[in-house]
Amino acid sequence: MKPVTRIAPSPTGFLHVGTAHTALYNWLFTRKHGGKFILRIEDTDIKRSDSAMSDVIIESLKWLGLKWDDGPYFQSDKFPIYKKYADLLLEKGKGYFCYCTPEELEERKKEAISQKKTRKYDRKCLDLSDFEKEKLKDRPKAIRFFIPDGKVSFEDGLHNKVERDSQDIEDFVILKSDGTPSYNLACVVDDYELGITNVIRGEDHLVNTFKQILLYKAFGWKPPEFVHHPMILGTDRSKLSKRHGAVSVLDYKKQGILSEALVNFLALLGWSPGNDREIMLRDELIELFSLDRLSLTASVFDIKKLEWMNGEYIKKLGDEELLDRVLNLPEPRTPNPEPREYMLKIVNILKPRMQKLTDFVKFSDYFFEDPTQYESEGVDKYFKIPEVSQRLSLVKDRFSELKEFNVEAIESAVRKLASELGIKAALLIHPIRLALTGKTGGPSLFHIVEILGKEAVIRRLKKALLFLKT
RNA sequence: GCCCUCAUCGUCUAGGGGUUAGGACACCACUCUUUCAAGGUGGGGACAUGGGUUCAAUUCCCAUUGGGGGCACCA
User: Fold this and answer.
1) What is the pTM assigned to this prediction?
2) Which of A239, A242, A416, A424 is catalytic?
3) What is the number of alpha carbons within 13 Å of residue A8 lying toward its C-beta?
């Protein structure tokens, strides 16, 4: 049987990398086995859900290249159906009305905690007399699920058999007093109705699964197979959250991370192919993926490794492709003067030192405007040599005389001048770089000179000579 | 507090009853080089602790400790 899986984000925020991680495993598993991957938006909490967030989540998933085969389904479209199922449990005597107000519940919970007693629901409304019910009939009422005695267990694909005493589970709400379903009910009903065969989700849901198993039993449905994968942690080993930095998938896009690098990196956070392979393209991931190779331990999100991997992916890109991606960056935008040839040359020499797309903007400023200042470290090191003015002046003259202004001609002119002066070429190269770029580091100087062109180079050398006089 | 769960370098991980415990990121050094990167070479760095089982345990079992998650009319 072909597997049917799903990713079920709730639109209360952006697409979190943790959700993307789960989506990726579902997607890989489904692609590998030729099944169906469904997108379901869990927007039952009307107050907290935002349709703009649904759009962002959809956009993020698309950017990652995790295409779904069916959906998106919206749970908010199905409120009557969940209510029908909740009523069914009520009829079967597996659920009961609860008239307790949130305030009452809160108060009793506090009391339970202060008395160090178990803090689960006290079943106050389970055995109300008709008289009491009559008294409460105008109050809004929720439906709770009655937890039967005994043990609840299921086979998790990673953890094997997990078991829990049902005494430790409270009679949870399945239908809120406003008539909307709670998470566990909606989830079970939808997984059943959509024919989900494999639920692959984060370990934070492991405890929910016991409740869901009980619901499947109450309905008489066969539960899907479950796999609870470990979670992604921040550097302090707590649940990854905003205070650790970017957690939204789109944040990484903005930073100039490539989706294929993020996918590769996320795949390796809690999974490995069993050998030393690390850089794996989408198709290779699909081919190598298997659920039983998932790790059992939570993993720390190491941004440094992501950036390294991103650099590897950038190096694989052709100049044209890389340039297009750089130009598509929303912020910060790079200048994009004509002709395209000019931009391609810059991309070509900057590529090996880029780790993020945004690095292009950071590293390329001097290709678009004359430097307005010189790095002070460089000034101390290269501009304070007494002979520097004379040398740069000679360089300027030699460059002006060049008929062919290409890397070979430029390099030989500089080296020739150096040997005539009886100095090392570096003593010319460093001050030239500083004069042309304002920086002490960067790509091959001769390439920079060629790309900038004779006119700009001469102009900048003159400016530097002026600066040296003052 | 109760419940679930996990435990190999700083981080991601491979491995598994007998290994010099492998790789990657990061770090350091050297090298290449006009510089910065990239590349190349090398280096430091790990089986949480205590009990079993066994000829042998990092690997299997138990406990402890530590970490993570959950305990909502959130999902």
Assistant:
1) 0.95
2) A242
3) 22
